[in-house]
Amino acid sequence: MQQKYTDLIVFNKWELVDERRYDECLDRVGDLELLIANVKSTKGRVDQSLLLGLDSALAKDGDSISGGYSKDKPAHEHSQDHETEVEVLSVTLVSEGDKPKSVNLDSLETFLLSAPKDEVYRIKGIVAASHPMASSNGDVDESAGSQPRVATYILNWAFGRWTFTYTDTTLPAPVSVASSKVETAVSTTHETILRMTIVLARGEASKWKNRLEKGGMIEQEDEGGFLMVGRIV
Description:
Elements: E1 8-11, H1 19-31, E2 37-40, H2 48-52, H3 62-65, H4 75-81, E3 86-94, H5 105-114, E4 120-129, E5 151-158, E6 161-167, H6 180-185, E7 192-201, H7 205-214, E8 226-231
């Protein structure tokens, strides 16, 4: 029963044993035949970006929720604060057109189903959608029934399982970045329809950034839209 609801194994106090003993513990976990990610703690601490899958742009109080990360703090200082075993991507999808737009939920679900648990640890996002997507257990949140056609939902994915929950939170306005194409997208006729943070295993960020930018995973329901993917950790 405990194995069924486990989505992360943390090795604590591993610094106190030799490499052989640690390998023995890894073997014992392997004997359980669980498709579950594992990480080492650092003096009893685990990076909050891994546990929460949340960046400051998605939090009402970024410093208190995301472990003190902020856009004004240099990246090298972040790495000194936490000897992290993860890398984090920030994803923004900006709509194109005058009418309210939705994220393509078929493409999004395909992405969620295909994300390997040993590469992708957490996905947290705010999504504008024309209808609710089923959570991984089949439940559908119908709370937005009387709301406008395009409503906002919170996506919370962890190691193969996810929930998709209605919220009255408003997606943040698009921000200008160093790209003439994207700067065109942040006019008054365009809106953010997805903000997402993806927490990955160390060494996976560049590969997944390229995959997302190629398209087909996170996109507008109809043609158009501008996808921005950046690494924050």
